[in-house]
Amino acid sequence: MKSTTREPSLFDALIPIFFLLVLLSLAVFYFGDNSSSGPNQIALMICAGIATLVGLKNGHQRKHIEKSIVKGISLTLGAILILLAVGTLIGTWLLAGTVPTMIYFGLQILNPDYFFVSCSIICAIVAISIGSSWTVAATIGVALMGVANGLNISAPITAGAIISGAYFGDKLSPLSDTTNLAPAIAGTELFTHIKHMTWSTIPSFVIALFIFLILGFNHDVKVADGQLDGLLTSLQDVYFIDWYLLLPLVVTLTLAVKKVPAFPAIGIGAITGAIWAMLFQQDLILSYANTELGNVSANITVVWQVMHEGLKLNTDNAVMNDLLSGGGMGSMLNTIWLIICAMTFGAIMEGVGLLKKIVETLIRFSQRASSLITTTIITAFGTNCIAADQYIAIVMPGRMFKEEYNKRNLAPENLSRALEDGGTVTSPLVPWNTCGAYMQSVLLVNPLEYAVFCFFNWLTPIVGITCAVLGYKVKTLVTNDTKEPFVGPVKIPKKLRRVKL
Description:
Radius of gyration: 24 Å
Number of strands: 0
Main location: membrane
Pfam family, one: Na_H_antiporter
Shape: globular
Transmembrane segments: 12-32, 38-56, 68-94, 114-147, 199-218, 238-257, 262-280, 335-355, 376-396, 450-472
Subcellular location: Cell membrane
Distance between the termini: 42 Å
Family: Belongs to the NhaC Na(+)/H(+) (TC 2.A.35) antiporter family.
Largest sheet: none
Number of helices: 24
């Protein structure tokens, strides 16, 4: 005999949200920067249990809830594989001298006064070229963080500049998965979507660059006399450094430009780094190897160890040790733990209809076009917080609001832009979101520290809401002779996957 399910009330939907906010706040209060190293995971799992109890109360079967959890976690497997590949890449690039070489040249080229602006622009250009904010953060971003540490420049502001540039480029790149996903869900054409996004994206980035410029001029960079020269000398003492050690970076970015999915592109980049380490960093490798091993065995064991454990530099220079230690698959396990817990909570919320109830309630209060667009942006951001994944933050509100946009004669690019303004760019601001967890694991700065400096990511939804309120660039549908809104059939391309592997 099949059990009948009841539609949840708004009170039902808000119960897990209330407890989540309380527990996450307590986690930050008691554990501070370490809240993402276990406390947040516990909070998410407790709230997942609360959401389960609400679902059971409303007649959902335990097996249905379990299937929702499995489905939700399975959607993140692509991201998890990318994380593991990135950990390996960072480890081998540190050993190969690729990251140290970027830091070496960056320390000499980048002017501290223009450092934050330069970080954003460099990351934006690369992200537009390859369409991936994650790849940019794991490659260019890691090197720029190293330069910032070498110059004693604020790590949180640097991370904010990197993320701002990376997400600006990702948002406007036709190669980006989210930039393809949003118009596919809303029912508009890709380049129509990109063109419509420029009205909220470009002003936000220009304002962000201006703020970074001011911060750069007012940032007190304390580099003691001889400290920079000493760091450059230390880099040369530990590593063999030359321009061709940047080849693993060139290989990875070329594969990304050629539209090779992120997982194999990053994996090939990691393997290239391992080969480059064995070719050019023999002194460093042999210093870590067991003295009883031959050269071949020493190379194999050290590279293998760095791939899973990362590089742990042990020199007399403490700055060097902090700067160039890290990476390895193992360094990503805490992030993966956080993602699994967050997706468990989000999957249950969606599976038992609690997210849908919240969105339906919001639609009732959105009587005007401006309020509907504003609600869409806020809902996408809220979904990032609740479901902990930017793809869900695009797909779920997109499905929920699409019909309402059609009823109100609003062009679908209004919806696709709102989804990106509220969903894509705000994802790294949430510590337990897949993007926030990823950025922390790669840039080694807590989202609670860098989020305030992600000016582009905050400004974009604000500018989007401002455009909606003012009625600026809010497009209406072209109607046919029957005066009915015309929207062509929408098909999500088969090649468009949730996470590119």
